[in-house]
Every structure is written in C-alpha cells, then in structure tokens.
Design brief:
CATH architecture of the largest domain: 2-Layer Sandwich
Low-confidence stretches: none
Number of domains: 2
Distance between the termini: 9 Å
Number of helices: 10
Helix content: 25-40%
Strand content: 15-25%
Mean pLDDT: 97
CATH class of the largest domain: Alpha Beta
Length: 331
Amino acid sequence: MKIAVVGATGLVGSKMLQVLDEQKVHIDELIMAASERSVGKEITFQGKTHKVVSVDDAIAARPDIAIFSAGASASRQYAPRFAKTGTFVVDNSSAWRMGKDVPLVVPEINADTITNDTRIIANPNCSTIQMVMALAPIHKAFGIKRLVVATYQSVSGSGMKGIGQLDYEEGRIQCVPTTLAYPHQIYRNVLPHAGDFTDNGYTTEEEKLVNETRKILRDPSIAITATAARVPVTGGHSEAVNVETLQPFEIEEVRHLLEATPGVVVQDDPLQNLYPMARTAYDKDEVFVGRLRRDYSVANGLNLWVVSDNIRKGAATNAVQIAKYLIDTIL
C-alpha cells in the first residue's frame, strides 16, 4: 500500500500524518510531497525520517492513494495527473467538490457514492462536515424542509495565517506576521466574514454550506441560508443550526437518533451546564451536539448547537476515513 500526502508540511497535512498514525492505516510506502520550497525537508513518521519530495516526483511514484491538502490551485493542477496514473485522489480543497462526477464524501453518510471508477474524491468543507453529521439521521427520519445556519469559525480555518494573526494580537508572539488573514483585528472581536465575499453579498463559506449540504444529503430541494462568522478561537468550529422538518418529531426521538449515530456525541444537559464547546471538542474526532430544543415559531422546528474540531473531523480525519474506506473496499 503506497500512500502520498500532498501538502505534508502544512497545518492540515501534518494533522493527516498524525491521524494516519493514530488510526493504524496500513502503509508500505509513505510519500510526503509539498511545494518546491519545502522539498528536501525532513519529517519523522512512525520513527522513520522521510524527505519531502516534489509533487512531480510523487506522481511518478504512482501511489495507490494521494491525500491532498495543498489548496485548490495545486489540486486543479495536479489531481488529474495523479488520477491518470490510476491513483485515487482524496482532495481537501474546494476545487472538485461541486463537480458533477466527483463524490463529495462524509464516510458515515455517503461512502457508497465512491465506485471502482472514481479517481478524484472531494473532502467537504469543515463546517459542512460537522453539520451534515448531525443532520443526516434527522433528514432520513423526518425529512428536512429548511435550514438556517450561523457558524462561529475558529482562526485555524484560515490556516497558519489565521493562527499567526491571533497569536500576534494576543501578544503570544512579537514578530509581526508577513501577511494577515483578516482585514480587521480578530482578538477580542467577531468578524461576520468567513471566506471571500461574492457578488450576491454572501461569502464563499456560506455558499459552501448551502451547496455541499444539498449534495451530500442528496436533496437539492432543501432550502438553506447561512451566515458565517470568524471568532477568536484557535481550534474548533461551532454552529447554531435551525431545522424545519417535513414530518413532525419529538425531541426525545431526535436525541435517540443522534445518540445512535456513529461519530456523533450528544452533550445536552444545560441545567448542569453540559453543552458542546470548542475548547472541549479540540483535538477530538467526534462531532458534538447539544442545546436540543424545539423551535416553537414553526410547526416542525428544531434548534441544535453543533461543535467539532475543524482540523480533525473537518479535514484530516474525514480524509483519512475516506482513504481507509478505499483500502477496505476497493484496493
């Protein structure tokens, strides 16, 4: 089993290596690839030192699976070249997510969309992954008519630039970052601005929540609107999700569904101050759901609070789960 990690020196790429180790993925040969400026760097994995190679060299090695976290531009350039050699590409960028013939996969929900002929598989956006993990069992049981979502996204969603800006503004580091992730101070602030603004007034992060959710749940009829905000938290995204279902439900039914869903942990005892928080979800693979309560303003309304580590389940862990599915079922 030959696996390449493209973007191995980055924030998510490093986490992918950690998760590959934690989940004991069988690897006979590991290829670490990155941009030209990182070629030659050394990374230790499972006690063995690996030299970072160029993406061209990784393609020439013809790996069975290439897990990408190198950005949309690099993915558009290199993923098809890997695919032409027969490599299964698991891509963490936005480059391929809405491609008609590209599966957009959260393994617990729709791994069946991957076939023997699939060569490029898209990893959804971090905010989408955690939300659909909570919504999939609800949609299956009651149908979803409409979603209103507000996200509170940590600075790690902007990579090392976001973390660096917050660290500088907090006084943790003295060196001024070369480039800032945000147009305003993020320390002690909340920005209603995650992603890039588009012509319709929404951001790219907000549009991902709309389009990717419909694709993963295989239901283009769901009405969805979203507001994405950036908050001064290092890791972990939080979401307030308002759901209007097609069929009536009882809160306890929803609770039992979520408690029975692999990868979801219900933390919902507000009288004891138990509810999901970014701080306690940090560095964990599960999606945490709480604040379950009925929305009395509509006939079938439900409110949820959903939290997950955006670098783990929102990126690295989900990608590694896809790779494990490929190894177990296709390769």
